[in-house]
Amino acid sequence: MKGWIISGVVVVVGIVGLAILNEKATPLIEGEKFRTMLDGETSKGLKFDAHYAPLTRVGLLGIHTDSFHGDKGQKTIVSMDAHDVYGWFNPWGLGFRRWQIDDLHIKSGTVWLQKTEAKPGEPKGPPPIPWTAIFWPYRVHLEDVKCDDADVLFKLRDQESGLYHIFLEITPNGRDFEYDGKGGTFKTPVTPELNLEKVHLLVRKPKIYVRTFVLGDDTAHPEERMTVNGSAGLQDDRTIRASAKIESLAVAPWLPEALRSHVFGHMSGRLEYKSTGTGVETASGHGNLVVDGLVLHELPAVRAFIKATASPDPGDVQVQTFQTDITYDQGAFKAENLQVESRGIFKMEGMLTLSKDHQVGGAVKLGVTAPYLKWLPTAETAIFTEADGDYHTTTVQFSGDVKKPKQDLSPRILKELGKSPLTELKLFFNAL
């Protein structure tokens, strides 16, 4: 009986003690000093100026703030905004000398990232533990962070780019973090808008590892996608390695807007990329590209040619073969082993290049069937002089720059037209 009385007294004292602590904890957590401490610890951890809106205690261990803002970033993160932030304070974290927030939930947020380079004399590894850590928690620990609507943004070619409106979850991996996202869109100035199926990153100094990054262009066909994986150095070693596998993405969205409604087909292939820094001047890569089911529909250049030359109208031009090997080296681009054929109309084989200073080069062997050469009487004797099966062929040289590319076929055709005023007149009236 005596033991039960003592146990009852202990329980009552414990409950009273918790009630007193609970009453004292509310003004502490909602006070300016605690919020300033969180601002400082978060700023040290994320290397920017962090500011929490006033904190509100929810229930026994819940904590809420309307917003969080970070700016003046010194590292990868330039700025961060979060809205309607809610989490649970875990008192067991005090035993590990940290303020631990579990199940942090964010309704919406935006993160701006920037390219960073290592600085001479920059300290490496985690900062030293302060002596006050013997008595007081010295860091903030986020156990699990979920954001319903996140934007992860960066600048590419001086234009806003990134992942928009994705669901993002961040979980710790030792002293590092893993990032899992899905939904939303991926947009840059060098790609069309793509759907994000899923992304999984592990940020573990000195590298960031892209375990999974899957993009698609049609939610009804998830099997049509591009999968990317690789790694990037974050400290002295800035090497970037990436591998992309394209599985049947639509071609049209990757073309200039004026051509998108005239070209149909799906591309597939593989690309490998490597660089020793974050700039393209150190980058190199190679791969291959194949386009299946390529159709040229009412292409203005084709329609103009058929009308002017009164050649047979092929309707939609079916291109049965389109493939090439791709090489990229320190800003220079090369498409080798290029093969394009629309059976019974034309075929091309050869190489095209684009130099670091945007100069166009290369040569292709162009073959055209006889029905599409009849409009020029001297075509087969003066220009398309070689035979390749049903095709009459000539070599076309390319030059100029990317804004005003040139080829030597047009001047040769104009020269032959000058020898036949009647043909010129016929073309003129056909065009009218």
Describe the structure.
This protein has 432 residues and is of the alpha+beta class. Helices cover 18% and strands 50% of the residues. It contains six helices and 24 strands. The protein has helices at residues 2-29, 32-46, 300-309, 379-383, 409-418, 421-431, and strands at residues 49-52, 55-58, 62-71, 77-90, 99-113, 140-142, 145-156, 159-173, 176-182, 185-188, 191-204, 207-216, 225-233, 240-250, 263-275, 283-296, 317-319, 321-329, 332-342, 346-354, 360-369, 386-388, 391-400, 405-407. β22 (386-388) and β23 (391-400) form a beta hairpin.
- Low-pLDDT residue spans: 1-21, 131-135
Structural class: alpha+beta
**Integer-rounded radius of gyration:** 32 Å
Q: Tell me the overall shape.
A: elongated
Distance linking N and C termini:
114 Å
The main β sheet shows up as: 24 strands, mixed
Q: If you average the pLDDT, what whole number results?
A: 83
Number of strands: 24
Q: Into which percentage range does the β-strand content fall?
A: over 45%
Helix content: 10-25%
Sequence of secondary-structure elements = HHEEEEEEEEEEEEEEEEHEEEEEHEEEHH
**Number of helices in the DSSP assignment:** 6
